[in-house]
């Protein structure tokens, strides 16, 4: 099965009610805004989606609800972050059963696997699913690096097709292009490096602040791909203080506060997370408020430059 690993792919947040249930109404509002902005896929169950706090039934509900909601307009991708190989294989089987069209997968959780073990883990999942797979390389946060040599071993599997790179090293894009050409698709996984990564040849952007600002995020991608770098940079510079909210241990709380500002979410998180408090809350709100104050001129630029 092929997947077009390109474009803007929101790592969507999971919405909850005051009673700690899934808020499918607000979730749907956000997803519809993403679709209207022109995103190219939707990724469920990532860190931003608070996947570690979700039950299996909730994951099933989210996948099936999203698949029904998008009605084939874009692929639904499920993130796999499991502690065991058996658990990862089961998660892949369930994702396919519930209607997901592709998988994004992290190395084993908690246990710091060796290079050999990490390759064996990814290989086992690839051999037990027909879904296309994107390897998630995030050595900064998860302490396991998927090296180019490891990726070379994995690309013998036809369904391992892409890498989400969150190594925070912009030269990785060039290294992968030099080594693999177009054999692997590359998506930037760090909001604050997205424009630079795409200019250097990345195929797309697994984005976080897109949850609150979908039109602006898609505009940057479209302008870069159209060669309108100057216009893309103008939006990107406005966006940067907001994008920096993604590179924080409290990225979920930060981005959910931004969603409140744009009417696309609530700030309800699931324990053990709690809403931001005190001076940190004030700091984040100030960034969001400044972004909202100046947003009108950016949206005017989006409307005038994208698609012309």
UniProtKB/TrEMBL annotation:
<keyword id="KW-0456">Lyase</keyword>
<dbReference type="Pfam" id="PF00701">
    <property type="entry name" value="DHDPS"/>
</dbReference>
<protein>
    <submittedName>
        <fullName>Dihydrodipicolinate synthase family protein</fullName>
    </submittedName>
</protein>
<dbReference type="InterPro" id="IPR013785">
    <property type="entry name" value="Aldolase_TIM"/>
</dbReference>
<dbReference type="InterPro" id="IPR002220">
    <property type="entry name" value="DapA-like"/>
</dbReference>
<comment type="similarity">
    <text>Belongs to the DapA family.</text>
</comment>
């Amino acid at each position: 099965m092929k997947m077009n690993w390109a474009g803007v792919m929101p790592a969507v947040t999971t919405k909850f009610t005051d009673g700690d249930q899934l808020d499918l109404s607000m979730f749907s509002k956000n997803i519809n805004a993403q679709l209207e902005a022109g995103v190219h896929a939707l990724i469920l169950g990532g860190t931003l989606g608070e996947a570690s706090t979700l039950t299996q039934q909730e994951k099933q509900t989210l996948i099936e609800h999203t698949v029904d909601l998008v009605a084939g307009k874009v692929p639904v991708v499920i993130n796999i972050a499991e502690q065991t190989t058996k658990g990862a294989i089961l998660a892949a089987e369930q994702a396919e059963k519930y209607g997901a069209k592709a998988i994004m997968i992290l190395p084993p959780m908690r246990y710091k696997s060796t290079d050999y073990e990490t390759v064996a883990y990814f290989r086992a999942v690839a051999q037990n699913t027909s879904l296309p797979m994107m390897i998630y390389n995030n050595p900064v946060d998860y302490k396991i690096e998927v090296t180019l040599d490891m990726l070379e071993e994995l690309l013998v599997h036809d369904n391992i097709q892409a890498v989400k790179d969150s190594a925070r090293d912009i030269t990785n894009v060039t290294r992968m292009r030099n080594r693999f050409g177009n054999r692997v698709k590359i998506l930037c996984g760090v909001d604050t490096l997205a424009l630079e990564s795409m200019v250097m040849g990345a195929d797309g952007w697994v984005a976080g602040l897109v949850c609150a600002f979908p039109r602006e995020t898609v505009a940057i991608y479209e302008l870069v791909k159209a060669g309108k770098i100057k216009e893309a940079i103008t939006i990107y510079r406005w966006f940067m203080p907001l994008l920096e909210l993604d590179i924080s241990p409290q990225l979920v709380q930060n981005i959910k506060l931004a969603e409140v500002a744009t009417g696309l979410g609530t700030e309800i998180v699931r324990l053990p997370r709690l809403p931001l408090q005190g001076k940190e809350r004030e700091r984040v709100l100030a960034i969001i408020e400044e972004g909202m104050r100046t947003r009108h001129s950016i949206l005017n630029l989006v409307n005038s430059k994208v698609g012309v």
